[in-house]
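Hi W.,

Here's what went into the run:
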Amino acid sequence: MQNAKDTFYTALRDRLATVNPARTIVVRGVTRPGVLVEENELVSGVTPADAFRLRWTGLKVDVAGPLPLATLTCEIHYATDGDAESGGMDRDRLLAAMDAELSSALTAAPQTAAKMSYSSTAAPAALATNIFWGDPTFGPTTITGERTERVATVEVFCYQEAGER
Amino acid sequence: MSGLVEAVAPVTRRVRAYFAPVDRAANAPVLFDAAQAGSFALDAAPAPWIDLGWCSAFARTSATKVEPLRTGAPAVAQTQVRTEIEATVSLRFESWGKLQMALAAGSQQMNLLATATGATANGSGGTASVATPLLAGSTATSLNVGAATASFNVGDLVAVDVDYTGQLGFVGSGISGAYVASAAAVNGDANYVRRISLNVTRIVGIAGTALQLGAPLPAGIPSSQMQVSRLAGFVDREGGGWFQEWSALFVMDGEQGDRVIYHYPRLQSMAGAAESAETLSGPLERLRLAGAFRALPVKDANDGESVLCFRSYLPAAMRAI
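Here's what came out:
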C-alpha cells in the first residue's frame, strides 16, 4: 500500500503546485509545495495553516479478484487563520480558495496515476498498475478561535501487485 | 506469464456518449471501427462523431431470446436457436443541449422560431418571421448576412437551413430532423426546415457583416440556399410520427488504461420525451434528460451476420488475456 500512498501524495502535490504555485510550506528549512503527509513528518504540536495535510486512515482489501484491490481512505486536513494584513477577516475567503484548489486538483481528469515505487534512493520506478481515486467529500467548516478549517476525504484505490509490499 | 499483470475487471466511473446522424435517405449508418480508431482521445472524437458529453444511468438490455430445439420423446434439447434479436439502451444526459434534447425527444425536436408580428399562437411556435438570406463568404463558424446584422444580437440562437420549397421525404441539413409526406402536411411553410433543423448555434459576436458563431454548425459550411432564423428555444412533443435515428458510441475508460466501447450503428428513440428528477436539497431538483433507444440491425461486412451492437474491449498494456 505504501507505493499507492506515496504515488497519491506526489500526484496531489504536483497538481496543487500547478493550481496555485504560490501555496508553499517550509518544512525543516525547505520550501515545498503546500502539502505534506503527516505520517512522514516529525511529530509536532504545531498545526501548520494554509497547507494541506494528508492523513491516511481507513483500509479495506478485496481479495476476490486476480489482484487484491485495496481501498485507502485519505483525510486531507487544511486550515487558515486568514491574512494578518486583513486581521484574519478574510479567513473564510482563504478557506474557500483552498477548497477550490483541492477540488480542482482531485477532480481533474484523469483521476488516475501510474503507481510508482519510491522505496529506494534511486529514481522512482514505475510499477504495472495505476492508482485511482474518487471524488472528494468535503466535511463541514469548523472554527477554533480565529482558525477556520475543514477535512476533505477521498478514497484511493490500488491493486496490490505480485511481490509488492 | 513473465512481465504480464493479471487482468482485472474494468473499473470505470463514467460513460461518454458520441452520436452521429444516420443518413436516413440512404439508410446508411455511421460505422465505427474500433480496430482503427478505438483509442481516440475522449475530447477529440473522430469525425463525424459528435461528443454529447458524459451520461449517467447507462443501461444496456438484451432482449434476445434463445430457445432450445427439442426432439424425441421425451423431448430433449438437441440444440439452440435464436428466435428474436433485440437490444435496448437507456441513459441520462448531463446537459440540455439541442442534440441531447433531440435524442431524448423521441420524435421531432423543433426550434421555436421567432414569430411574425401578430402570428396566431401555436404550441410548437406560430408563423415564423421572414428569414435572413446568407451572403457569399459564410463558413461553419461565421455567417455573412450583410447589413442584416442589425437584426441580430450577440447571444441570439439561430437556425441555419434551406427554405422549404416542396421537398418530400427526409429534411434537415446535415442531420435529418423530420420526414415530410406532403407539402400540404406542413402547410407549405417556407420556414419548416429551419423549424425542425438541428443545424443551430448561438451568435457570440458580430463583426462587420458577419455573425460569429459559438460552435461550428453541425452541417458544416452553409450553402448559399440557406437562410438564418432567430429562435427562442426548443420544443418537442408527446406524439408525432417521426423517429430519431442515430449511430451511437459509448465509451467507458477503465482506470487501468483499458477501454470498453459499445457501438450501436442504428439506434431509434423508443420512448417519448421524459426527464428524471434528482433531488439536490429540499425543494431543489435537477432535471436530467432521459433517453431510451431500440437498436436496429446492420450487416457485419466480415460475415454477413445481422447484429445490433458491437462491444469492443481494448485491454491495458501488458495485461494477461
